[in-house]
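Could you join me in thinking about how sequence relates to backbone shape in a protein? We need material for that, and I hope you will provide a protein of your own picking. Label the sequence line and the structure token line clearly, so we can match residues to local backbone shapes. Would you write everything just below, so we can both look at the same thing?
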Amino acid sequence: AGVSNCMSEEEAATQEYSLALIQPEKLILEIGSNPWNRKRTYMCSFRYNRASYTLKLTDPVFTNAYQAREEGKYPLENMYICVSLTEPWEVDNNRCHKLVAGIIPNRPL
């Protein structure tokens, strides 16, 4: 279950880009499990432009790095994230979902 994680196909059509690189506030990686199939879930909660979001994380580098950790919340500091907008999903009334496609550490040069 996400927060501000999808939009209508019509609203998505008004967007200029399907990818956005942002520096969120208060980024937290939430590791859990799906109650129906017990598969591991990875969600990112954060604030951006005074709005709260909880989006599914699909970055394989980060999910692999955290797969041995226990379920829980892990704050991530000084990161950028790449947010992706999916194609309309027929199973969900043709809504387009927002995903965190990548997490990029902001390291000094």
The CA atoms of residues 38 and 87 lie 26 Å apart. The chain is about 10% helix and 50% strand. The mean pLDDT is 90.
